[in-house]
Amino acid sequence: MSNPWLALALGTDPAERITQVGRAHERFVTGEQPVTQVRDVVAASWRRSAGALVSPDSTAPIELSDGELEAYRAAHPLARVLPIFRDLLGGLADDGDHLMAVCDAHGRLLWVEGTASVLRGAESMNFVPGARWDEAHAGTNAPGTALAVDHPLQIFATEHFTRGVQRWTCAAAPIHDPATGRLLGAIDVTGGDHLANPHSLALVRATALAAEAYLGSRQPPGGSRIATVSVLGREDAVLSIGGKRLRLGRRHSELLVLLLLHPEGRTGDQLGFDLYADDLNPVTVRAELSRLRRILGPELLDSRPYRLRAEVDADFLTVTRLLERGLVAEALAAYPGPLLPSSDAPGVARLRALIDSRLRAAVLTGGDPRLLQTWVNAPWGADDLEMWEAYRTALPAGSPARSLARNRIARLAAEYGLATLAQRRRN
């Protein structure tokens, strides 16, 4: 079975493949579905790109520049492993044919390195530090799609969604925080068609693993914070403890969230009510708590009342703290999606709604077009009519994105049977 993450199967003619995929791309962007010859990972990415209103002739926007860019990347965790990137990939960047690029978890390019001539070619498509290269802003591309699917991959020539990038081929791999599993960004190599081989994919994957190993070796020993929990944008909680990552079941995920929300402790009845409301069964609650205690260990979970004995941090607590400090951009950057979105436990549902509403209100009232754009291009905000209207209003006159936003607003308003903001003002 061929590797779905590699761009070309053994023996494939690159020129013939470029033509074949290019024809499929043109059919897709003019309204037809991609043909079967396109890899599944590419076809899915094309659909996501089109759904995010990316034009096949668009250019990635530049979000950070000058001092703002310098401050952001200096504070970013991947700055600590930049020497590793240069050590392992610097030879490619210096050979005159390739670029090495590093992006954050939102696809913002932090570093782009190579010879002057190759860098000039990259500038023509805004493949520069500070530009936003996630799929929602730049369409299908190796670093953006690697972030979207959380897997190393190659994107070959005409597999790119935007036409201005189709003369390039890229290989990229995501990088995670070894302590929490949180996505930190991606490492990418960009160059010509000759990059479409197993060696380039293996190289970026090995580089990502080396970076993660280095970050893990530099974790502070001991300390009172011995565990972290990830529940945002996930159906189940992931508990990172003692260098291991544990995925919890649904009820245990909900219980852990409720215990984190109430560090002072909860009785079994209180936890049961937050889980089941009027269908409370004390025996079931005690059994679930007993199983959770075996997973966490008595050194973490106490009883009478039930509470966490050590300091355990969580991604939703991070977002809450940032909002309390008025750091809206940072809170949105730390928010990969709603908390346990499929959970119907009353206590979890209330917390999910509270976090979502607070973050949404902060983005909406701030009126920053970049934050509004991030919201409406995210899966949870794609159908948010009010945010789309605020985004369009915040854009400068003449911006190409205004017409895209206007079309999206019209479609949503028609689906909801509502008048648009412009129509309401006329009336």
From TrEMBL:
All residue ranges annotated as the GAF domain in the record: 118-212
Taxonomic superkingdom: Bacteria
Protein known as: Transcriptional regulator
One Pfam family from the UniProt entry? GAF
